[in-house]
Amino acid sequence: MSTQPGQPPRRLPDIEATPFGDSALMLKVATADAEERQSGSRRLREILLDVRPHGLTDVVAGVDSLLVEFDCLAVSHGQLAQTIRLAVAGSGLEHTEPGRAAELFVIPMVVSDTYSPDLPAVAEELGISQEAVLGLLEESELSINLLASAMAPMMGAVRFPGQVSRCKEPRTNVDSGSVMVAGTSAIIQPFPGPSGWKVIGRTPLTVCDIRENPATSYRPGDRVRFRIVPASEWEHLEGQFLRPEGHQDPMTAPDSRKDH
Amino acid sequence: MGAAELAVGLKVREAGWLATFQDLGREHSEFMGVPCGGAADQHSAAVANILVGNRRTATCIEIMGGRFTFTPAAPILMALTGAPADVTVDGQAVSMWEPVCVPGGSRVMIANARGGMRNYLALSGSLVTGRFMGSAAPEARMGFPQQITAGQDLELGTRYRGFEHPYLSQPLFRLPVPVPAFSPGTWSIDIVEGPETEAAPGIRELLSSRAYTVTAKSNHVGLRLDGPVIHPEGLGEIVSHGVPIGAFEIPHGDELIILGRYRTLTAGYPIVAFATKASLPLLGQARPGQKMTFRWVSQDDAVERHREEQRQLQVLEDRVRNLFLAVDLPHAAASHAPEQTAA
């Protein structure tokens, strides 16, 4: 992080590349610092989606790693790892300017006994009151780190005083819109399904809809704030598609309406 | 290929236990959090389309179990691949893994699949269906089930107009089709080592010496297998990371999971092996009760076997194209060129 201005990096960045089967590589920035690994893996993803090295077919973001899938007939593990290191050397890992300006999403969330079954346990684990848990969530400006399964926005970091553990027994079905936390990350369940994260609220909005194009309006790098709203607002907001702040409602802006 | 595309209706009479539109899956979707999905047996799905002169990526129909019957309103050219099954056209048995000329109004029946889980039905032309992220493959969790039900009317856009052979009702094409064995006994699956193989001393010997059985909890997310496992030690909590298709996970319980094409993209379980790319189609055919053994191979051998299988598909594709052009059957890639490689 302390490269002299105007001087290109002298050495190739330290990127661990581990074969994950015959057609994938697991990439990790070799540093003991967790924050650096996380921002590094995000930057790696940006670089690879931008450069699209020969043979690369897709990437899957992890919390502090990046899985790179490739066509093993087009390129070998070693060749691809080398191309990636060169691409990173050229672009720089520390540069984190996003390709487009980050959008801000303000997401309403309802808290109730039904919607927040794990709130008491989270408060107890963190040693603070339930109100304080919600207060810290509302105060935190979160950044979307990656899109997890079914385009779920995984974001960090909530300013919790400690780490929130996962459920001992994962739930087999968590309702869509559920706002969940684990560690100091938060995630929203886009579709009903299993999850081991702790459920502390629920948004009435639809965060992912495959009839929309694209199916989500958020992308990695975008910012999120949660706003706790009374249950009375549920009905009014239910099913509305999540859009960024400042986005004009398509109902009042005929120009931006899609032809079905 | 002067014939214009004709819309042919297909009346589905029986839809098996589960039939869906299917293809080879999504490209560039996993970076967005959507698994590639697509045919569990990619080999059979690709061959079916090749045999009717379609692109490998064309929409086909995946059939799982039971009886699937339909009647086309006009002549169609079809091919059925996958698990050994009985196929008849108006009661007369026809072959799998071959192009089959079906007269308009006849009844096609696919039934009694055995030795495997899935059949792939390809039809010359393009099946009309919705797409999500560029693919007709189901993504049920996100609200894109693509299921085909009894009574449904399908629409096929085809340039096929029937085909007359001077002597035989079904032409003999003699194509070099790579047909998988679907052997009745224990299947052998090639594997390469995983990141946590060393952390589980003894797992290497165990996986290569014992038989594992697919359980009924298996689905398109993953195969779950009964058999002895060794839990890796001293790893601590594994941070969620991306997992490829074919990863051998050992969860907290005593079972082995082999991830499928609809896997959850990130997980934190130890991975003790990966199925090779060439062995994935066979895994995609494994039914509950199927026994399998594993064989460790090197990365180089894994790539070599995949290369050989792709070469066989390419040979078949070339032969079908030349044949179809010679006898004036429609072919999607009349101007097909090998995939361009980036400079």
What report would you give on this structure?
The complex is a heterodimer of chains A (260) and B (343). Chain A is of the alpha+beta class. Chain A has 2 domains: 15-91, Gyrase A, domain 2; 104-247, Beta Barrel (Cyclophilin). Helices cover 21% and strands 26% of the residues of chain A. In chain A, a hairpin with a 4-residue loop joins β3 and β4. In chain A, α1 (34-51) crosses α2. Chain A is globular and about 55 Å long. The model of chain A is unreliable at 251-260 (pLDDT under 50). Chain B has 343 residues and is of the alpha+beta class. Chain B folds into 2 domains: 6-181 and 309-326, no CATH class; 187-297, Cyclophilin-like (Cyclophilin, Beta Barrel), CATH 2.40.100.10. Helix content of chain B is 14%, strand content 28%. In chain B, the strands form 4 sheets. Chain B has a 7-stranded antiparallel β-sheet, with no helix packed on it. In chain B, α1 runs parallel beside α4. Mean pLDDT of chain B is 93; it is low at 335-343. Chain A binds chain B through residues 18-24, 26, 45, 49, 54, 57-67, 69, 72-74, 76-77, 146-152, 190-191, 193, 208, 210, 214-215, and chain B through 27-36, 132-133, 139, 141-144, 192, 194-195, 239-244, 246-247, 264-266, 271, 274-277, 299, 302-303, 306-307, 310, 341-342.
Tell me the quaternary state: heterodimer
The number of distinct structural domains of chain A comes to 2
Give the number of helices of chain A: 5
Average pLDDT confidence of chain B is 93
CATH superfamily of the largest domain in chain A: Cyclophilin-like
Q: Biggest sheet of chain A: strands side by side, in what order?
A: 5-13-6-7-10-9-12
End-to-end separation of chain A in angstroms reads: 48 Å
Q: How many discrete structural domains of chain B? A: 2
SSE string of chain B = EEHEEEEEEEEEEEHEEEEEEEHEH
Broad CATH class of the largest domain in chain A: Mainly Beta
CATH architecture of the largest domain in chain A: Beta Barrel
Main sheet: strand order of chain B:
7-6-9-4-1-12-11
Helix content of chain A: 10-25%
Rg of chain B, rounded, reads: 21 Å
Beta strands of chain A, count = 13
User: Beta-sheet strand percentage of chain A?
Assistant: 25-35%
Largest sheet of chain B: 7 strands, antiparallel
Low-pLDDT ranges of chain A: 251-260
Number of helices of chain B: 4
SSE string of chain A: EEHEEHEHHEEEEEEEEH
Indicate the proportion of strand residues of chain B.
Answer: 25-35%
